[in-house]
Design a protein that fits this description.
single chain, mainly alpha, Ferritin, about 0% strand, globular
Length: about 190
């Protein structure tokens, strides 16, 4: 597999996200006051993000719409960095660090959890991987929109019920991104 040269847009986004991560990482673990809602959020959002990354990795070779491919690239970069941030938060707080792929496979084994989190099933993921062109675009959006809706619900819960300020700020930033991407995807879905 060859690596493609990242776009200037991707590099700019990476710089902004890294700057945010460095600022978020300055809170000391000793001052942290997380609760079980915070810990559970990171344990579950990491595999949730892993699925979005896997879906987004399909887009460069399959998407017909260049805007959809660009959005998938942003999702891939942003959610990869957010996983890294959440794992860093777990480590700073002395919690087990979630393995994204192992946790993702565990979640897929629980159909109720998949549905509650707005995630795609194994069968839907397998089907998406067989499509290309406009069919891929439609199914990608039909899966990613409820996926983001599920993330918004999870984010709302940790913002309202969590107690860690660092994680709260990360969640608010993720919420803004997810909502903006939802609006973009809903507009795209109306035109594909």
């Amino acid at each position: 597999m060859s690596l493609e040269k990242p776009s200037l847009r991707t590099l700019s986004l990476l710089v902004v996200l890294l700057a945010g991560m460095l600022g978020a990482g300055t809170a000391s673990a000793a001052a942290s006051t997380y609760n079980e809602v915070d810990a559970e959020f990171t344990r579950m959002m990491i595999p949730h993000h892993q699925q979005a990354i896997l879906m987004s990795e399909l887009a460069p070779e399959r998407a017909a719409d260049t805007e959809l491919a660009a959005l998938a690239d942003r999702i891939h970069v942003e959610q990869g960095l957010e996983i890294w941030m959440m794992q860093g938060w777990q480590g700073r707080n002395g919690l087990p660090v979630t393995d994204p792929e192992a946790a993702y496979q565990d979640v897929l084994d629980n159909p109720d959890m998949v549905e509650r989190m707005g995630m795609a099933t194994r069968e839907e993921m397998d089907r998406l991987a067989t499509l290309s062109g406009a069919e891929f675009d439609r199914m990608f959006l039909d899966l990613m929109i409820p996926h983001h809706d599920g993330a918004v619900d999870m984010l709302r819960d940790v913002i309202l019920n969590g107690s860690d300020q660092e994680l709260n700020q990360m969640a608010q930033d993720m919420m803004s991104t997810q909502k903006a991407q939802l609006a973009t995807m809903r507009d795209m879905r109306d035109s594909v």
